[in-house]
Amino acid sequence: xxxxxxxxxxxxxxxxxxxxxxxxxxxxxxxxxxxxxxxxxxxxxxxxxxxxxxxxxxxxxxxxxxxxxxxxxxxxxxxxxxxxxxxxxxxxxxxxxxxxx
Length: 101
Fold this sequence. Notes:
With 101 residues, this protein is an all-alpha fold. It has helices spanning 2-15, 28-42, 48-100. The longest helix has 53 residues, at 48-100. It is elongated and about 115 Å long. The model has no long low-confidence stretch (mean pLDDT 80).
C-alpha cells in the first residue's frame, strides 16, 4: 500500500515543471520597507533605549531579590537575638549584682 503512494508521488513530481519562477507577492517589498522604516523611527538609532530598558529590568530584579534576602536575614537575626536576650539579661544582672556589693 505504501509503495503505491510513493510511486504516485514520484510520478507527480516527474510531471512537474523543471523551473518555477520565484516571485514575491505584489507589494510585499513595499510593506517590508514600510514596516522597517516605521520601526526604525520609533526606536533610537543605536539601540540605547532597548539597552536602558534591559538594564532597568535587570536592576529591578536584583533589587527585588536582595530585598527578599535582606528581610529573610533580618527575621532570622531577630529570632536568634530573642533566644539569647534572656540569657544575656540574666548574666548581666548577675555581673551587676556582684560589682554593686
